[in-house]
Amino acid sequence: MFGWAVTFLIVAIIAGIFGFAGLAGTAAGIAKVLFVVGLVVFLVLLVTGRRPPAL
């Protein structure tokens, strides 16, 4: 989950450098949502004492 957030953040930074404001804003928004969702899932798993499934 955090890997996807970092990917969208990098896309947003690159799009911002090249002047694609709409794409940069969308990618940054997606990165924020994925980061928050990943953080919530992490905290829930931390509180319940469960581990994520092994890959």
TrEMBL record:
One Gene Ontology cellular component annotation held by this UniProt entry: plasma membrane
InterPro entries for the chain: DUF1328
Parts of the chain that traverse the membrane: 5-24, 30-49
UniProt keyword Membrane, yes or no: yes
Keywords: Cell membrane, Membrane, Transmembrane, Transmembrane helix
Keyword Coiled coil assigned: no
Taxonomy, superkingdom: Bacteria
Family according to the record: Belongs to the UPF0391 family.
NCBIfam families reported in the protein's UniProt record: PRK13682.1-4
Protein name: UPF0391 membrane protein ABW22_09875
